[in-house]
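Q: My collaborator sent me two sequences in one message, no labels, and asked for predicted structures for both. Can we handle them in order? The first one she listed is below.
A: Yes, handling them in the order given. First sequence, followed by its structure tokens:
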Amino acid sequence: MKMEKNRSLINQIDAQSKIVEELLTLKNDVGNSLVLILVEGEDDCRIYPKFFKQDSTRVEFIPGGKCQLINVLSALTAITNQVIGISDADFLHLEKNYPDVTNLFYTDYHDIEMTMLSFDPVHDNLFAEYRMLDKRSEIWQNIMQQSSYLAYIRWYNEKNNCQINFSGLKYGDKLTEISKGKISFKNQALLQTLNIRSKDKTEELTETNINDFITDNKTADGLNLCNGHDTIALLALIVGSLVSYKELCRHLRLSFTIKEFLQTKLYLQLSDWQTRNGYNILKNAV
């Protein structure tokens, strides 16, 4: 618990420092015409900048997750309208319970990775790269099924504040097995591993409470249920030695172009925001 409190304190200090830093940026000669775009993940800084005009925007990573992003965004929007936030929706689209935060926008699906994977051309690029296009449907169905199980555990943890530690979780031989081209979680081993690595957990995860939760919250909406990093990690295991998880993430980002971004709800909401507020921050299709 002490480690968790220390981490929380560090995140709060980082967030406060970021508020001061961004305010100073907006007050200088260059910054007075900038719109700051705050994001919650470091990888987001590799995705979003290519969709915004570089001379009128700056994408900034806020450490500490969604909570600290909201804290920094709320503090800045109380002073200026030259700041917006983009956050992963996580389970919000399933729960339909959105925080009332000014200038905060969400990904179309669970996160930006699942949003990217929702586009067929992106799918085709990935599977063609690894000569698996003919097995695309079969592999995708398998991955989504297995990713869903871990997603329900994540959802259960969030709803019940179990404080389960998912950070840095690896899905190799100890937690998964591959047979005849299909991957599957070793459910009991997965739950046991999560319990052991979560020193500050408020309750023990069991197959019974997770299966009961799945029964009560069953959804066919995999794009809003599944975590993109889990899904990509499972795909990387199926692809095997041809690609690492990091390389697969990079290939996914490269496959998601402005052509796809222009078709998202997120783009439409951002476009509406810039029109209403008199800014010109979005790139157009080339």
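Q: And the one she listed second?
A: Here it is, processed independently of the first:
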Amino acid sequence: MAQAVRFDRYGDVDVLNVVEVPDPVAGPGQVVVQVVTAGINPGEGKIRNGSLHERWPAKFPSGQGSDLAGRVVAVGEGVSAVAVGDEVLGFTNERASQATQVVVPVEQIAPKPAELSWDVAGSLFVAGTTAFAAVRSVSPEAGDTVVVSGAAGGVGSLAVQLLRARDVTVIGIAGAGNHEWLRSLGVLPVAYGEGLADRIRVAAPDGVDAFIDLYGPDYVELAIELGVQPDRIDTIADFAAVAKYGVKAEGNGAADTIDVLSELADLVVAGTLRVPVAAVYPLAEVRAAYTELERGHTHGKIVLHP
């Protein structure tokens, strides 16, 4: 029997359980992956607690997780691109990666570069493709100044690097404890809280060209106050502001392809993209992993080891 994270009602982390489930079977065009690492993401916690029910309802009992990396242990009919024993990274759209085994369509996995660590490989998909889409959505050009909220989080830490690779001046909103790390990436850090608009104006005396909001309430309004045009503002956290101001809301769903994931993996291997791993937990401690994540001050990714 395999093991998988399940919850059968909305609630806090205490609704999460690791239960025995039947071993998955690969159908035509599918593979079964023995999961080595699986990332966790803030959106999964919001689905679990019901706050995203209107947008992404859960069907009970529900699994969790999209990110994964592991080894192929079975292939279905018609699969020739991979073989049993291959090391892969990829994703599932079935909220199922936080498990010892998962079945996925073969087009949702790719070879894991040997130089890529398991922890990074298994936690790159959601944060990486969200950062990729958010950066692309605001059309950054060399010489632009772009503000990023939540700049030291799982998505933000990648978005600021993708922007810097385009020769963009990046102002990163983050707590003081993350400022030194942001500076090491070439980012200009500013602290959140009262007086933020003034601190950004000091850091960007020639104005702000684009704004990526990865954190939530009031940051879209801040971007508007700073004079950023709505078509150069992207939020993955404030959907009410999307309707009110006509800003963009491009995230993971705008770039959730294996080609983008492979491109990001190659950037990590090349040293262009650094993926900080904040903590690693065994699958059995999934509640503790989400408790840490939901404190909202994690620097980088949290990873499960099934």
